Amino acid sequence: MMDRPWAMNLGSIGMIMAHEMTHALDIQGSLYDFKGDLRNWWSESARKTFTDKSQCFVNQYNSYRFPEQNMTALKAYQKQRSAQFERLPGKMDQFDEEQLFFISFANMWCSNNLPNAVKKTLSSGAHPPESVRVDGSLANFDKFSDAFHCKPGSKMFRQPEERCILW
């Protein structure tokens, strides 16, 4: 991964790391303290705020996961991005660093699932299918819309007032 642009590394491995870290701040993570002991450390007010904001995502994705890990990875990339962007060869040279960040994120979720596998994934409630993890989360993400110039009416554009924001 060292020979790839930094934006691509953070779009993939950075997102995975951010995703796992945010579990400490979700409903399940709220049940364990910093030592890993079973102890609810959220106030009732914090729990209600989280639950209320999470409902927006439930309404949009029918219990799909949240895009906060995408924001964490993007912020890390933006701190580290180079002043001199190294373009990739071939057809990839048409994309800038921010676009490559999101392309790398989406590429990480490439899959070819049979319909029964998708149904099983949906019924388990653990995570949405890969395509929804990409489209569902990025449509809420204004940095993605800006990077790809998404226009109203396109599949990947959600009006700002319709976007779910957890943090």
TrEMBL record:
Pfam family example for this protein?
Answer: Peptidase_M13
Q: Which GO terms describe its molecular function?
A: metalloendopeptidase activity
Domain Peptidase M13 C-terminal, by residue range, is 4-69, 72-164
| GO BP terms in the entry | protein processing
Gene Ontology CC terms: plasma membrane
Q: Which InterPro entries match?
A: MetalloPept_cat_dom_sf, Peptidase_M13, Peptidase_M13_C
What PROSITE patterns does this protein's entry cite? NEPRILYSIN
Protein name, per record: Peptidase M13 C-terminal domain-containing protein
Lineage, highest ranks first: Eukaryota, Metazoa, Ecdysozoa, Arthropoda, Chelicerata
